[in-house]
Amino acid sequence: MPKRKIKYLVIIIVLGVILAVGVYLVNTYQALVQKKEETQSHWNIIESQYQERVAILDKLVILTSPTKEKSDKVERATVIWATTRDADNTAGMILATQKIDREIEARLDFVAGTPTLKSAEKYLELEKQLAETKKSIISEQENYNDAVTEYNRRLKVFPAEVIAGLFRLSSYPYYEGLSD
């Protein structure tokens, strides 16, 4: 074979390898972004359920608080949720969900010691709504943590680790919120 043909063949092979590596890297990046979006989608469902729980907590506070305390306590739950939503990070949101759950538990403990409230129709309806949102959150929590496991695992494997670093993709925290 003449030198010229060998030179063109080498150039074609090198370009082919570069193209193949480029396609592989693009596909790896797209797979990471897809997993990240899937993880975020599961978190959005949990967040939506917590927005509902905050609204229920507001109603529970109104039902169980003396009049002068009502506005302060309702505002407190809403502020806890609103300030962490502005943080735009999942770890901060997880902390907010835990604070909301503690507030709900404190209210439920109070009601448990007050037989007239415990049997009130409004309270029973709120308790039912809390149970429904808790069930939804627990179910979605498993889906979210499964997605986090898969996403975080992919971030740690070469070349995804390099691509994640280049595009500043970081791992997600696990959610250990409500339990049965």
Beta-strand proportion = under 5%
Name the CATH superfamily assignment. Answer: LemA-like domain
CATH class: Mainly Alpha
**Strand-pairing-aware structural class:** mainly alpha
Major sheet characteristics: none
Terminal Cα separation, in Å? 75 Å
The coarse silhouette is rod-shaped
Write down the Rg: 26 Å
Q: Total strand count, please?
A: 0
Helix content: over 70%
Supply the number of structural domains.
1
What oligomeric state best describes the polypeptide chains here? single chain
Q: Which structural traits does this protein have?
A:
single chain, 180 residues, mainly alpha, 0% strand
Task: Describe the model.
This protein has 180 residues and is mainly α. The chain has a single domain (3-166), classed as Up-down Bundle (de novo design (two linked rop proteins)), CATH 1.20.1440.20. The chain is 84% helix and 0% strand. It is built from 6 helices and no strands. It has helices spanning 3-64, 67-87, 90-112, 115-118, 121-155, 160-166. Helix 1 (3-64) runs parallel beside helix 3 (90-112) and helix 2 (67-87) packs antiparallel against helix 3. The longest helix is centred in the N-terminal third of the chain and has 62 residues, at 3-64. The model has no long low-confidence stretch (mean pLDDT 82).
Could you provide a short overview of the structure?
By secondary structure, this protein is mostly helical. It has helices at about 5-65, 65-85, 90-110, 115-120, 120-155, 160-165. The radius of gyration is 26 Å and the shape is rod-shaped.
